[in-house]
Amino acid sequence: ASFGASFGGVDLEEMGEGRVTVGVVGGGLAGLVAAEVLRQDGQAEVTVFERQKTSYADINARPTNGALAINMNGVAVLNSLGFSEPLKRIIGQAYAFVVYVGTTWWIRELCRSDLGFLPEKYAVPMGGVGRAELIGILSAPLIDAGCVQFNTHVVKVDVGSDGAKSTVHFEDGSAQMFDVIIGADGLNSAVRRAVAPDNSKEAAFSNISAFYGTIRGSPTFAHPELKPGVLLQILGPNTIAITYTAVASDGSPIRYFAVNTWVDEDDSRQLEPKSWASGASRGQPKAELERLTKDWAEEHPLKEVIRAASNDDIVYFGIYSLGNPKREWWSKGNAVLVGDALHSTMPYLGQGGSLAIEDGYTLAKKLIEHNFECTPAFDAFYEARHERIATIVAGGWALRNVYFRLPSILRQLVVFFVHFMRIPAKTMEAVLVHAPVPVKPRPDYVPPPKAVLWRGIMAVLVLGALAYVWFF
């Protein structure tokens, strides 16, 4: 189709007469991956609208920009787009998942899972990455191609029907029109309000509040599990914490930690509710963390991490979830949602980032396959994603209930059983099934011997103990 002399304020002679225009609202993982797939394909003129003031480099000035876990299914997508080498340099490879219990006189390892065989088996790395580093890698080719517009806060979207145009309205009063709108603008999504105006599906508070810290530089820690390669989880009273490492662009370590607590209502008093990146109005998160752990032993690994963090390294926010979205919340007309704007969930499976990456990749591929006809492309996107998303969303909520709703002894038994049966590693392998980019074991991989009988006997004993504690 020919759109005339100009479209959305862009000269079509410059952008290519007749090219489909795609507006991506939000420059996070899902938005950037979708935009990069479309850029590499070359059939569409793609523009990413990012609220960041001048460039993604500004993120690096904010120590609380955070880190995230990226699993093999997410890494495989990024490798297929040509990011393999830069990605290897920033991943803090996870080799062990260790769980500690006890906060005072008996601080001990409850269980551990070996994860080191996974990258050997599949030849794909996995672990922690700094969000700023990952965003910097994904955005670089798009910025070079002039596809990213910074300092553009989208406040409203008027959705057109399939085959018509949609209008994106900005905070400064300007507007642009596009053939396709991709809403990748997170929990506070302006696009979601347009896709479902009668039921914008407000995110639900999970009763979990999080202290979220990122320590950059090269701090040293005395505890043996506070080392690169270890994903350390800590079970405390009404509390669960996790800490692991990533690698900064300059090669220095990043120590990430999160401390989750159960609360009756969101008391974080965030400047912008439901947005982890907005910060909070409470000014002393480190002091509050110290009060939370004041009765814990000084040698406890979490207290050691807290001591190494500054107040500016930590934010405090409520965790909200959209749960499993109904079909009518996925798309409308020529607008569609991806990532947290569609299905933000609990963080306990470590799949949030990888799900967003998969979303962006799958949506872009479906648009290309269906010649940018929105209705069949969005239907195909839904069919490809909804069961996978529903399973992971349900799994995240199930773990939230295990961590915070079970009595302490029962929680420890469940966690021990999960690790004893090697479920964390099995789960990481299970998500590779039906992944957008196939990940297969190396043909020359030789698995270690399995203690099947011993594990079976222990499984029966642990399940019996769980039943006894629960019913008697």
Features:
six-stranded mixed sheet; 472 residues; seven-stranded mixed sheet; disordered N terminus; 21 strands; alpha+beta
Describe it for me?
It is a single chain. The chain is of the alpha+beta class. The chain has 15 helices and 21 strands. It has helices spanning 12-15, 29-41, 72-80, 84-90, 117-122, 131-144, 190-195, 285-292, 301-308, 340-343, 352-369, 374-405, 408-420, 423-430, 452-471; strands spanning 6-7, 10-11, 20-25, 44-49, 67-70, 92-93, 96-101, 108-114, 127-130, 148-149, 154-158, 166-170, 175-178, 180-183, 204-216, 230-236, 239-247, 253-262, 314-321, 331-332, 335-337. The protein has a 7-stranded mixed sheet, with helices on both faces. It is globular and about 70 Å long. 44% of the residues are buried.
Coarse structural class: alpha+beta
* Assembly of the depicted chains: single chain
Low-confidence stretches: 1-16, 275-281
How many H/I helices?
15
User: Main sheet: which strands, in order across?
Assistant: 8-7-16-17-18-15-19
Largest sheet: 7 strands, mixed
End-to-end distance: 71 Å
Compute the average pLDDT.
86
* Strand segment count: 21
Radius of gyration: 23 Å
The proportion of strand residues reads: 15-25%
Helix amount: 25-40%
In one word, what is the shape?
globular
